[in-house]
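Worked example (supplementary).
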Amino acid sequence: MNVVEQLQEVRKWTKRRDEKNRRMSLVKSWLRGSILPTDHIVNALEALISSGDKVALEGNNQKQATFLSGALSKLDTHKVNNLHMLISSISRPEHLDIFEKGIARKLDFAYAGPQSLRIAQMIEDRLIEVGVIHTYLELYGRMFIDLIPNIALVAADKADLAGNLYTGPNTEETPTLVEATAFSNGIVIVQVNEIVDELPRVDIPASWVDVIVVADKPYQLEALFTRDPRQITEMQILMAMMAIRGVYERHQVMSLNHGIGFNTAAIELLLPTYGASLGLRGKICKHWALNPHPTLIPAIESGWVESIHCFGGEKGMEAYIAARPDIFFTGKDGSLRSNRAYCQMAGMYGVDLFIGSTLQMDEEGNSSTVTSGRLAGFGGAPNMGSDPHGRRHSSPAWLDMVSNEGTIVRGKKLVVQMFETFQKGDQPTFVESLDAVAVGQDANLPIAPVMIYGDDVTHVITEEGIAYLYKAQNLEERKLALAAVAGVTPLGLNHILSLNEQLRKDGLIAFPEDLGIRRTDAKRSLLAAKSVEELVEWSDGLYKPPGKFRSW
Amino acid sequence: MNVVEQLQEVRKWTKRRDEKNRRMSLVKSWLRGSILPTDHIVNALEALISSGDKVALEGNNQKQATFLSGALSKLDTHKVNNLHMLISSISRPEHLDIFEKGIARKLDFAYAGPQSLRIAQMIEDRLIEVGVIHTYLELYGRMFIDLIPNIALVAADKADLAGNLYTGPNTEETPTLVEATAFSNGIVIVQVNEIVDELPRVDIPASWVDVIVVADKPYQLEALFTRDPRQITEMQILMAMMAIRGVYERHQVMSLNHGIGFNTAAIELLLPTYGASLGLRGKICKHWALNPHPTLIPAIESGWVESIHCFGGEKGMEAYIAARPDIFFTGKDGSLRSNRAYCQMAGMYGVDLFIGSTLQMDEEGNSSTVTSGRLAGFGGAPNMGSDPHGRRHSSPAWLDMVSNEGTIVRGKKLVVQMFETFQKGDQPTFVESLDAVAVGQDANLPIAPVMIYGDDVTHVITEEGIAYLYKAQNLEERKLALAAVAGVTPLGLNHILSLNEQLRKDGLIAFPEDLGIRRTDAKRSLLAAKSVEELVEWSDGLYKPPGKFRSW
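After joint prediction of all chains, the assembly is encoded as:
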């Protein structure tokens, strides 16, 4: 026997497949095809999951595998413990309960908005061992590399008897989690709302799926991307006018992603009014990587928008989307197909601009939404809010960011931060040191959890004006431009006002008057819709807002 | 009628769907289910494609939709012309013939290796209007944003009578092109090698597909990732030893992507010998984003490799992969599922290191494989060979690249360039100005087509030593470190040798002796396999190399 033969003798190459077959044989008698009776779920999970497994549990921003996460939290810790959870968005209490109970031990995640306070405390108390905190794309990427799931627990709308799945508009991350698991001999377990004879369309083929279970009630779905226009202030309208005039028009921004705040909702609602008055329809903002924001309805109806690709769906927008197939990605059945991984990829690599808001920014332009005691994670913002150095295709906006001379240059993605100089409660947004630094230290993170780094930011918009950071030749100039729009925050008060004339001349800053904007014009009457009710009107009754947004 | 009603009156929202239905009705009588008779393909394409359409034609590195691209080149230009082609890899003569004939006019592409000379000439002659040159991920991303296909022409192995598709190991970009087209009311046309009663597995569901046609012969598949160990030189072995010692071991590189050259093949073949002698098994190189390189077989068989996710397949590796499901991503049927988009995403975001080679590098570390008169495009290298600024998760290797101090820092992806100081024909690799600069000007590109920018490169390895560029505090230090390993090229000859002692002390460069490597140890006898025949032996006969690699 030579060395090669000896090595092959000892090594087995089908451990994952054999183990999968072993576990599946334990539940075989309960299955009809791949369908498991609802009341067998806890027993089945105890048979199919082994201690120490890597378990990908679907937790999106919106769609939650609530039935499966609930069942997981009921497992007998003598049978199943020390799981390594992969959860993109920690949204449900039971996502953390399983750590308190000892069912799970290690956690890789991307976002923990609703649970950010509790998760920070549990990490400090060593109830959770954090792998690392990712962005969505990184976590998905590593599921194909070194965080390969043994188990996927996901949610779909419907299954047929053959085991094919229909996810409906909130396709989101389901296909990605399933692909990573199914093709590595992991076990794919799906909760569905119902089993039907014929699916509207197939989103995931039966041959990728192992176990299907009808949930006791439909999966949770959150309307996270709905902003009521009533709450948009005139300060936000002023900033939105500056964004349209001083960024979108100036750089011919054709494709973009918006954050989910009221600031960007204001921009969406100004396109058909202020934007139209500037003659910009068809010249900016034609292509979007965006969840179906209801506040974009007036711009769509007014012919501004050519296409929207979505990370996920949005409650209430189903009928409107189905009636606008030229704009939205929809299947043969007419309903949306979203895709979180592809939309993040497109939002990072395929668009001119990202614009979002933040809670804190330091004097170098680093920013974070992490505030004291809360560990919210990153979500997808850093994917979009960074300059992708691998980008090689150009567009007018991207080329506008070329700031150095020479034969070897490159453009930049436009990364815009837009916020008021003070947050509610009179906390200055510009701070000496980000809270993220202390939070990172408390949670023993290797580096501070910065959401967007200053060297990636090209523009900062406050109610004072715009800082054109991409024009700064060095860190000093970047700091000066920021201080010039920092208002009466400590950073702004220390700024030497006499420098502003030169900064304006150099194009490093612009005030509203430099952009032809009168502060007194920033009125709520400019909004194309001033309430959710008016959004419904614009949609011809197709948009059906969830109850909490109905005030009429 | 109010303004909203007026706008809605004039706007139609189902143009794409209506147009698709109109076109499909023209071919309906020829279809049985979705299956079109082979000899009807030209007529069918003339009915289904309209002048000016955006047409995504599957051209991977490996798998080519040859039957469909051949049919496309036979269209009557009076009926179909001025198409806007989206082709990730220009590999076939007919990919360019259609431009000469006037069937197509505009081109967005990512790579044009085999056709790089002809494409450069055709652009200069204005036979092709180039949209822009992308990397793969950018082109895929934009297919969901502003380059949404009207038509997809793709290749699969098999279809069933219901219209489901099995792509086999070379899944590659097919699902991505189909998703972008199917969910935007485009028309998806698939060539298959055969129609069967039952598929081994479903890669793409029938509800995403419109027309299936059995090709006159199987699609073309190229073995592009096979390197014959016979051709590996001792110079390459020396550099490979430096890479293992001075980069992989030093930074604990656990997950990585290799380029396709002989340099990296040498590393793969040294892991089970030189790497083992350093006690590194299990400590480096466990997880890979990589095509199934045959030269990785000895490392797999020796227990170095835990997982490999693939962009595509490789001819001859099918049976070996099917027998190693713990390592490769395989379906229930046992065959590989590759995925170009996900693997690029993982290779960019999810791994510690990219290492590749280049033909030219300038004194600042910018590099390109574009040489005079050839416009090869970018492919996927810039995705992998750049620092992804959106990355937020850390690993020991990534943290090792933190070079500045302070509370706000971040790591870097390891981007390694490895090449000999002279190319064949005694052309120095270090040049004063990249040929890419002139080629870009000739082709009227907005900026020079640089493959990897100097500021993204962390390490350069030549036969002289390693330049640790991530340690350079400024451009001057970066230039000095590069010159120190530039040998007797003009750049190297101008370097002041007396500086080297300080550069070594500062850790900016290392010579083989600094790494404990004797140049005389770099022998071919170190290779775990010295020929393709020995790779076959390592694989226990499972690897079945294509004829051109069989010399025994």
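Two points are worth noting when inspecting this output. The domain at 14-221 of chain A is CATH 3.40.1080.10 (Glutaconate Coenzyme A-transferase). The mean pLDDT of chain A is 95.
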